[in-house]
Amino acid sequence: MAALFGNRQPPHSGGRQRLSADIRPAVVYAIGDVHGCLDELRQLEQLIRADAAGVEGEKWIVLLGDYIDRGPQSARVIDHLLAPPPDGFRRFTLAGNHEQMLLDFLASPRRHTDWLAYGGLETLASYGIDARDGMMGAAAAAMALEARMPRSHLEWLRQLPVSLELPGFVFVHAGLRPGQPLAEQDENDLLWIREPFLDGPGAPGIVVVHGHTPETEPVLRSWRVGIDTAAFATGRLTSARIDAGGRISFLASRPANPLAAQTAPRTD
Fold first, then answer.
1. What's the pTM?
2. String of b and e for 237-262 (b: at least 16 CB within 10 Å)?
């Protein structure tokens, strides 16, 4: 079993754990932004189980954050991820910026009402709270969510790690700031960065596996692997498969409407 050793927290990190392991497992399946798409997640897990059936050794599933918002089943996605992983797998769930937006909204709803426009209304609806007509104020919506959300969901959101480091690879929601040592990366960048990360140059010897920036197809560069294919809009939830030798391939759920997969909106 690969040894996890890690809560690497620089003083300005924001407090979330940063996990690391000293060896790669036999295979890692990294999954991009779920955004409330439980059906797509279940379909992708079936593909992963079938693909891994002949693999000997330890098998990991690493989810890269943004489990909530935009799609219709945020609450049920969290229930699913709180349940045991598929047989034979270890599962790691990292934080995304949307999880942090929800927590910021609960802490100060009037300062963080933008969360509602970026998918928060769909998350509220998944907990049985209808704020779409604009009649419910931010403070009332936050109170309703705290009352409806199971305590286990809130605790889970708060304890999500922000990154996972393996030899040669870093798994994180958004990316890394170029030129900044890994141990000194700011948590806000790990959750939110796009440029200058997306256009490189990257850090020598490290491939960053990330979501956050939606594309119509997974992106494979020498320094990064982007696997947010906007499942809430396209029906395509993507996984990067990385074996112990570092070889990368992709699996994806099949869109119910193939035409929908042609567009991936650029969102926060």
1. 0.92
2. bbbbbbebeeebeebbbebeeeeebe
